[in-house]
Design a protein that fits this description.
422 residues, elongated, 17% strand, 12 helices, 4-stranded parallel sheet, 6-stranded parallel sheet, alpha/beta
Length: 422
Amino acid sequence: MNFSKPIKRLLLIAVTIILSACSASDFNNFPSSSDIFGTNKTPTPPQQKPVTQYPTQPDIQPKQLQKKLKEKYKVALFLPIKSGSVPIKQVAISLLNAARLANEEVNEDRLDLVVYPTDGTKNTIMPAAQRAVQDNIDLIIGPLLAPSVVEARKITEKAGIPMLAFSNDQTAVNGGYSYLISYLPEQNIASVVNYSIAKGHSNFGYYASNTPYGKRVGETFNREVTSRNARVTNKVYFTENSSDFYAKTKEFAEIDIRPTPQTPTSWTSVMFADRASLMMRVLPLLRRYNIDFKKTLILGTGIWDDPRILEIDELKGAVFAAPNYKTLKLFETRYKRMFKSKPTTIASLSYDAVALAASLIRQYPHKPFYVSKITSPNGFNGVGCIFRFRNDGLSERGLSILRVNDKRFEVVVPAPDTFVGS
């Protein structure tokens, strides 16, 4: 049987990127250092479906919005493409390209994707939000940075425009019409704590650099552990390259309170919240202080999305929460085919947002972006996992548990394919 090209495309979409609000089916990632400090080369924009820049986008008059069935739904992309920071600009371009890839693959004619370029500061975010209201935008995807989300929603929520933002700062939203489609480290931590407790661990250690991220993860880790009637018996923050680095490591290894080198530590499971390059320094030092990693369950975070993690012998058997690595690789392959470069870690979020918008338009052509539709308890299928939005603006994701094993990541707890019953 022969199919025309449009029908072939639709069949491909049906198999590979279905987003359904009826039955739900991401690598848990706090944005990795490669996203914020990476050097991905700037990709070439695709030619298939150019996206209009907002300065030349014609206004839609209110009377046109009174139709029962709109011919077009305008979906805005708020991205810091004009940022003075080269790394942030590169992340923005990768998010833009992923949106273009989704726009090409889902092929929804009623979705009009409009780019509102900003520099990521209040000086451009506020005018962009005001312009979006004037342009009768139906849905906003972005912004990327938490301060931009806060400033934009002051304007867009009053106009009733829903927003799917990329920030992973939970304080950026508090319900209303704004939601975080990002990977939230808090959920990642809860997943691995649950796994560790299920394995019989009740005493935990936490060792991380004294950074905003390290502190944020530490606070969440403490909350998740204690809420499950377990204990954090030792929590230490260190400053990299400081004079007390070795003293802090000794403190965490409990050298002064263990009577013999063979005496176990107060903790049997430990979370490390640092990148691979730092783990390569810390773990051999802890081993020198007689920490037996074979008797310790090591927990990691989303920034372990780094092949160098597989090279660290001490991390064999360590676990962390993540979306489906294989489906993310398929997305990466399609992205590289179109743009001749590798997507940043969080690029798939933009793909998910655009594909979600197209799915809602198809299923609810009269009122696709109502809160009740966006917050469907059944959730949606994403590039790497199922996800759904809560009424407080945060997202939940169905993550798997991966274990570092023999130079590869092994799935020990598969990601759920539905939210039904949860």
